[in-house]
Amino acid sequence: MQFHTLEGVVGNTPLVRLQRINAGHNNTLLAKLEGNNPAGSVKDRPALSMISEAEARGDIAAGDTLIEATSGNTGIALAMAAAIKGYRMVLIMPDNASSERKQAMAAYGAELVTVSKEAGMEGARDLAQNMIERGEGKPLDQFANPDNPLSHYRTTGPELWRQTEGTITHFISSMGTTGTIMGVSRFLKERNPDIRIVGLQPEDGASIAGIRRWPEAYLPRIFDASRVDSVLDIGQQEAEEHMRRLAREEGILAGVSSGGSLAGALRVAEQVENAVIVFIVCDRGDRYLSTGLFAPGV
C-alpha cells in the first residue's frame, strides 16, 4: 500500500457552488475552500513551497532557525511546515492577532515574538529584518519570495482550471502578500487572457485580517499590478456581514477576509451575466471565534 505524507495532502481543495446566496444574471458563484488544507488555510501552499524550494537550492538545512513576519495564517502554515521538516521557527506578529492563531502556532512548536498593534505588520517586518541582520536566523520573506506565488501557479491555478473545466471567467482574491492572486493570475491568463482577475484591499480605516492596503514602502516585491485587472475596496462591516452570511446561509465557516471575497464576488456579479465567478475562502472561521464576530445576535 502507498500512503501520503502530510505535505502530500496540501492542495486539491474543494470548489463548491453556493446554493442560497444568489449571484443573479445567470451567474455561477464558486467558493474554493482553502480551509481544507492540513493547517487550515491557503497559506499551507506557499509555506511548504518556500521551505522546500529553499532546501532544494541549499539555502537552508534541517535544524536551521527560520524567521518570518506574519499576521496569522502564514505563521500557522509555516509552523506546521517547520514541524514536518525539522526547523526551529520564529514568528513575529502584531499582538492583536487572535488567541486561536497564536495558540495554533505555539502548538506546532513555533516561538512567537510580538510587536504592538500600532506597529502592525510593518513593525513586524522591520523587526524580522533586524533579527536576520543580527544573524539570529534565516529569512523566508513571503513578501518578496517568488516561491510564494510559484506555489499558486503550480497548484491553485491548475486546480481551478481543471475544476471549472476551463469555464472560469472571473477570479476574486483578497490581497495580503499578494502571492495567491499573482500565481493564479499568471496561470489562468496563460490559458485564457480574457479571464478577469479582481483583487481586494480594505477601505481606509478597515482592519481585515488577510487583506492589506500597503504603504508604498512596504508593497510586496512579488506584486505586479499588471496581473490584476481591477481592485475593489472592501469595508469592515461589509466583510464581517458576508463572513456571517457564508456560515449562516451556506454552512461555510470562514474568516473575515473570506467574507470580503464573497462581497467582492457579489459586486462583480452585479455587473456581468452568464459568468463563472470563483472566490477564495482563505481559511476556517474557528480561528476567529474568540473575537465575538460570530456571537448570537451579531
UniProtKB/TrEMBL annotation:
One of its GO terms (molecular function) is cysteine synthase activity. GO terms for biological process: cysteine biosynthetic process from serine. InterPro entries: Cys_synth (IPR005856), Cys_Synth/Cystath_Beta-Synth (IPR050214), CysM (IPR005858), P-phosphate_BS (IPR001216), TrpB-like_PALP (IPR001926), TrpB-like_PALP_sf (IPR036052). Residues 8-283 form the Tryptophan synthase beta chain-like PALP domain. Pathway: Amino-acid biosynthesis; L-cysteine biosynthesis; L-cysteine from L-serine: step 2/2. Keywords: Amino-acid biosynthesis, Cysteine biosynthesis, Pyridoxal phosphate, Transferase. The keyword Ligase does not apply. SUPFAM superfamilies: Tryptophan synthase beta subunit-like PLP-dependent enzymes (SSF53686). It catalyses: O-acetyl-L-serine + hydrogen sulfide = L-cysteine + acetate. The modification N6-(pyridoxal phosphate)lysine is found at K43. It is an enzyme of class 2 (transferase). Its cofactor is pyridoxal 5'-phosphate. Pyridoxal 5'-phosphate binds at N73, G176, T177, T178, G179, T180, S257. It comes from the Bacteria. Belongs to the cysteine synthase/cystathionine beta-synthase family. This is Cysteine synthase. It comes from Modicisalibacter ilicicola DSM 19980.
